[in-house]
Design brief:
Layout lengths: L2 E2 H8 L2 E3 L5 E2 L1 E2 L9 E5 L15 E5 L11 E5 L2 H16 L4 E2 L4 E2 L4 E2 L4 E2 L4 E2 L4 E2 L4 E2 L4 E2 L4 E2 L4 E2 L4 E2 L4 E2 L4 E2 L4 E4 L4 E4 L2 E4 L5 E4 L4 E2 L4 E3 L5 E4 L4 E2 L4 E2 L4 E2 L4 E2 L4 E2 L4 E2 L4 E2 L4 E2 L4 E2 L4 E2 L4 E2 L8 E3 L4 E2 H11 L2 H23 L1
Parallel strand pairs: 4-5, 5-6, 6-7, 8-11, 9-12, 10-13, 11-14, 12-15, 13-16, 14-17, 15-18, 16-19, 17-20, 18-21, 19-24, 20-25, 21-26, 24-27, 25-28, 26-29, 27-30, 28-31, 29-32, 30-33, 31-34, 32-35, 33-36, 34-37, 35-38, 37-39
Antiparallel strand pairs: 1-3, 2-7, 22-23, 39-40
C-alpha cells in the first residue's frame, strides 16, 4: 500500500511542510532512511540525522524548527512517536484483515463465533465458548470449553486458553502464551506433595497484550485477574490468584509468585521477581532483577535483590568495589587493637 504525505497528514491531523504528493510504502529508522519510506524524529538528540536522511517523509513534533536545509518532506503533528504508532497500527490491521473459517478448524457445535472472525487451520474452539466479532484465531490455537473472548481480540498460533477463562476486547496473545494452566499448588504429605486442585479461572480485561510464551495461571479459587491496558513481555510468569492493576507493564522474564497484588501504572524491569502474598502499590518501578520480598508503597523505585530504594542502592553500589580494601583495613585495625591491648596489659 502506498500513501501520500497529504493523505497521512489527514489521518494524523498534521501539517505538511514540503511535497504533499510524495508517496511512501514502508517505514524506516531515521538514520537508515530510504526513498519511499516514512520515518520519525521525536528525540532532539537525534536531530542531526534528519538533515542526511533519505526517508521521503519524516514525522516531527509541531514545535520542530530545522536549523539546516532538508531533503525530506515533514509532517508536523502533536506527538511524532504516538503518531507513528497510529500509522503502524493502521498498517498492522490492514495486514490482519483475514476473515472466514478454515476447513480444518474445529468449532464445537455449542460454540458461538461472531461476525467477521478468522479461524485458521487446525484451531480448536471448545464447547459453549463465545468468540466476539472481528476476532482472529490463528492456526493451531486452542481455546477450551466455556471461554469468553471479546471483540477484535487476536490469538496467534499455538496459544492455549484453558476452560472457563474470560478474555476482554482488543487483546493480543502472542505465540505460545498459556492462559489458565494450573497454579503451582501442592500440599506436603509426609515425603510427598499432594496436588491442590486449581478450581478458579483467569480474567483478562480489555486492551491487554500478552507476550510469546508468557504464562498466566488459573486461581486456586476465585480468579487470577489482569486489568485493562496491561502489557506483558515474553516469558513472563504470573502465578495463581495474582491481580495486576491497570496499565502496568512488565519486561521479559518477570516472575510473580502467588496471591501478589500489583497496583496501577507499575513498571517491572526484566527478570524482576516478587515473593508471594505481598502488595505493590500504584506507580511503583522495579529495576531489572529486583527481588521484592515485602510490600512496596506508592511511587517507590526499587533496585537490587533484596530490593531497596534506588537512591540507597546507588550509594551502596559505590561501596561494593571498595569492600576488599575495607575488609583488609578492618583486619589491620583489629590486629593493631589486639597489640595495644597486649601492651596495656603488661
Amino acid at each position: 500500500m502506498e500513501f501520500s504525505a497529504q493523505e497521512i497528514a489527514s489521518v494524523l491531523n498534521g501539517v505538511v511542510e514540503g511535497n504533499p504528493d510524495v508517496r511512501v510504502n514502508n517505514f524506516s529508522k531515521i538514520e537508515e532512511g530510504k526513498p519511499g519510506t516514512l520515518s520519525f524524529l521525536a528525540n532532539p538528540k537525534y536531530e542531526h540525522y534528519i538533515y542526511a536522511t533519505e526517508a521521503s517523509i519524516v514525522l516531527v513534533n509541531k514545535d520542530f524548527v530545522p536549523s539546516k536545509e532538508l531533503k525530506t518532506t515533514l509532517i508536523k503533528v502533536e506527538n511524532a512517536y504516538s503518531s507513528l504508532a497510529v500509522l503502524m497500527n493502521l498498517v498492522e490491521n490492514a495486514k490482519n484483515s483475514k476473515t472466514g473459517v478454515a476447513s480444518t478448524a474445529f468449532i464445537a457445535a455449542t460454540a458461538v463465533v461472531g461476525e467477521d472472525c478468522y479461524v485458521g487451520n487446525f484451531a480448536y474452539i471448545g464447547e459453549n465458548t463465545k468468540i466476539g466479532k472481528g476476532c482472529k484465531i490463528y492456526p493451531h490455537a486452542y481455546i477450551g470449553d466455556h471461554v469468553s473472548i471479546g471483540e477484535n481480540t487476536v490469538i496467534y498460533p499455538h496459544v492455549t486458553i484453558y476452560s472457563d477463562c474470560y478474555i476482554g476486547k482488543s487483546c493480543i496473545f502472542h505465540a505460545g502464551s498459556v492462559v489458565g494452566a494450573d497454579g503451582f499448588g501442592f500440599a506436603p504429605e509426609g515425603d510427598i506433595y499432594k496436588k491442590i486442585p486449581q478450581l478458579g479461572n483467569v480474567i483478562i480485561e480489555d486492551d491487554v497484550e500478552i507476550g510469546a510464551n508468557t504464562t498466566i495461571d488459573r486461581a486456586v479459587m476465585d480468579s487470577t485477574v489482569i486489568r485493562k491496558g496491561v502489557k506483558l513481555d515474553n516469558l513472563v510468569q504470573i502465578a495463581h490468584n495474582v491481580e495486576v492493576g491497570e496499565n502496568t507493564v512488565m519486561a521479559a522474564q518477570v516472575g510473580i509468585a502467588g496471591s501478589v497484588k500489583i497496583g496501577k501504572h507499575c513498571m517491572l524491569g526484566g527478570q524482576a521477581g516478587l515473593a508471594g502474598h505481598i502488595k505493590i502499590a500504584d506507580r511503583v518501578s522495579l529495576g531489572a532483577q529486583a527481588g521484592v520480598i515485602s510490600d512496596v508503597k506508592e511511587g517507590k523505585t526499587l533496585l537490587g535483590a533484596p530490593a531497596i530504594d534506588s537512591k540507597l542502592f546507588f550509594r551502596s553500589s559505590a561501596v561494593f568495589g571498595k569492600l576488599p580494601d575495607i575488609y583488609r583495613t578492618i583486619g589491620e585495625l583489629q590486629r593493631e587493637v589486639e597489640l595495644l591491648k597486649k601492651e596495656r596489659n603488661k
